[in-house]
Amino acid sequence: MTTPKDCHPIIEVRGLKNAFGEQVVHDNLDLTVCRGEILGVVGGSGTGKSVLLRSIIGLQTPETGTIEVLGENMVDRTEDEAKNIRRRWGILFQNGALFSTLTVAENVEVPIREYFPYITPPLLDEIASYKIAMGGLPADAGPKFPSELSGGMIKRAGLARALALDPELLFLDEPTAGLDPIAAAAFDQLILSLQKRLDLTVFLITHDLDTLHSICDRIAVLADKKVIAVGTIPELLALDHPWIQEYFNGPRGRAAAASYEHEVVA
Ligand SMILES: Nc1ncnc2c1ncn2[C@@H]1O[C@H](COP(=O)(O)OP(=O)(O)OP(=O)(O)O)[C@@H](O)[C@H]1O
């Protein structure tokens, strides 16, 4: 369960400690994400998955520890340095985090305008249309406002915006939360096909066992303020940690495993 030998680290977290007052969320947490993998991050509610994501993207300053993303140190960066690194990743927040007063196309254009303020409007529109198509939305979604979209379409619009600057790395925070099983499975397949086509590295926080089975290369488990294990599902199942056993071997875990095995055989 060590890091794969051929791993080219894209995210390296070492000795991370995060605390809010007396509450220690992470203590001496280590994690490596390798280039080209889809890493799923799981853990019970409140184990610090979102705080870990916020630390990695520089929104949460840790008490101690080092974080490198795409070869850059993320702790104590100047605003200019932070801006340079931010353009190399895309983030899909749990609720899509779209600007409600902007259309889908305008939302996708926000990061492009930020980094390329002199881009011409026709080119901007063309790039936005292309990204909207990559997010799996029909062209007529571009002029719509978020309030006119279904939950699944909001996620796809958020994904289109996350892809706006051709990222090397994608952060997804519970991408299938709130979607019905059919929409969730379609979204999983969209992530997988984008990851392959665009050669992306994906850091994916999820509670969705189907997502873990169907698209994740490795899974990191957060518990006891640390990443207690990273590996494939069979590797994790070989451990006798109670949370891991309950999660993957509980009724829902077994159902997800069975349906995935069925899918592989069929
Ligand atoms: N800004 C903050 N101030 C104080 N406490 C915080 C803050 N952000 C997070 N926490 C606390 O840190 C802990 C971890 O929160 P986090 O949101 O990372 O959990 P999570 O694993 O993502 O949970 P869930 O699966 O429910 O989304 C929680 O106890 C939360 O209350």
TrEMBL record:
Domain of life from the UniProt record: Bacteria
PANTHER family found in the cross-reference section: PROTEIN TRIGALACTOSYLDIACYLGLYCEROL 3, CHLOROPLASTIC
PROSITE patterns, per the entry: ABC_TRANSPORTER_1 (PS00211), ABC_TRANSPORTER_2 (PS50893)
One Pfam family this sequence matches: ABC_tran
Domain ABC transporter: 11-249
Protein name according to UniProt: ABC transporter ATP-binding protein
Annotated SMART domains: AAA
SUPFAM superfamilies: P-loop containing nucleoside triphosphate hydrolases
Any one GO MF annotation of this record: ATP binding
Keywords from the UniProt entry: ATP-binding, Nucleotide-binding, Transport
